[in-house]
Give the backbone structure.
Amino acid sequence: MVQNSWFRKTPIDDSYLHLDNFLQICATFKYNGVNYDVIRLRLFLFSPKGKAKMLLNSLPSSSIIT
C-alpha cells in the first residue's frame, strides 16, 4: 500500500496530501506492544521514489528518529 502511493518530489506532488495518505495507511497497522511511531518510521523508508528517495538516502544514518 505504501509503495502504491509513492512521493516523487515533483511539482505536481503534494507533500501534505502524501503524508496524510501515508498516515492513513499506517493507521491500518496495529501490533501489540509496538508504538505507532515505530511503524511509521519503518514504513516511511518505502514511501518516497525518485528525487525524494535520493534525498532520503543522502541523509546520515539514524538521522530520522521522530
